Amino acid sequence: MTSSAIDKQIYDLYDEYCHGYMNRRDFLNRASAISVAGMSGLAMAQALLPRYAQAQTISSTDERISANHVEYESPGGTSGDMRGYLVHPAAAAPFPAVIVIHENRGLNPYIEDVARRLAVEGFLVLAPDGLFPVGGYPGNDDDGRTLQSSLDQAELKTDMLNSAKFLKSHALSNGNLGAVGFCWGGGTANYLAVEMGADLSAAVPFYGAAPKSEDVAKIQSPLLIQSAEDDPRINAMWPEFEAALKANQKQYMRYLYSGTRHGFHNNTTPRYNEVAANLAWERTVEFFREKLV
């Protein structure tokens, strides 16, 4: 089913479901009550659920990269230990480094694929799994979302901060660190920009929550802000965020992609907008090359 065939009511319900405001059963039940032009709301809702195997773009065995899982210490985090997916080019080090931060459901196959895409472009990449201290990504997004929401959020963000520090100081890193994140990860990329100051060289939040206005002064890295046109919750934060960026004379660029919804970069569901996702990705890679290489 194409994205244009899915009614906006279903997209809005899916957004609530994705962000934990209802469970899968309620999402499907509420969608079932909707029928548009003879099309079942349930069928539209089911079409929005992710299909990871069909969306992989770079294999883990691709000869251009080396990929493995690594464990490292995370003091002050959920358990004191963390695990991440580390990927780098099959070439001579050092490499510019990028941390890829997952959505609100742990390190799923989409985020691992994003890590491999960056490695192919010449970066040392770490995609941490915030759920590792509680067993890791459970293999499906529903359980992953429940697990992530059950964690102490301050400790979870500390795990992401420790992951960024681990990557920056990695033996294969050139010492220049960037951060990119999606949804919850986009907000966390902003958090890293606040917390790391000059230790972060670039940040690319995709449709992520803005930091507190009083914290914007701490940001020293340039920001490339990727926004969806139809994303009321995140876009409502933008005027105050932009005012704080301007007031503190921060370096930033924001792109608002016409005809897109929250999650438009994720190619595992019909929310994916290929044209916008490709353009946003080209801009992301170019930005990291400019700031990190």
Give the topology, please:
Layout: H1 8-18, H2 24-32, E1 35-36, E2 39-40, H3 41-48, H4 52-55, E3 65-73, E4 81-89, E5 95-101, H5 109-120, E6 124-128, H6 141-150, H7 153-168, E7 173-182, H8 184-196, E8 202-206, E9 223-230, H9 232-235, H10 238-247, E10 252-261, H11 274-292
Parallel strand pairs: 5-6, 5-7, 7-8, 8-9, 9-10
Antiparallel strand pairs: 1-2, 3-4, 4-6
Question: Could you report the average pLDDT, rounded to the nearest whole number?
Answer: 92
What do we call the CATH topology of the largest domain?
Answer: Rossmann fold
CATH class designation of the largest domain:
Alpha Beta
Strands of the widest sheet, in order across it, are: 3-4-6-5-7-8-9-10
CA-based shape: globular
Radius of gyration: 18 Å
Low-confidence stretches: none
The class by helix and strand makeup works out as alpha/beta
Q: Tell me the span between the first and last alpha carbons.
A: 41 Å
Along the chain, the helix and strand elements come as: HHEEHHEEEHEHHEHEEHHEH
Number of helices: 11
Q: What proportion of the residues form beta strands (DSSP E)? A: 15-25%
| Main pleated-sheet profile | 8 strands, mixed
Whole-number total of structural domains: 2
Q: Name the CATH architecture of the largest domain.
A: 3-Layer(aba) Sandwich
Got a strand count? 10
Q: What share of residues is helical?
A: 25-40%
CATH superfamily of the largest domain: Alpha/Beta hydrolase fold, catalytic domain
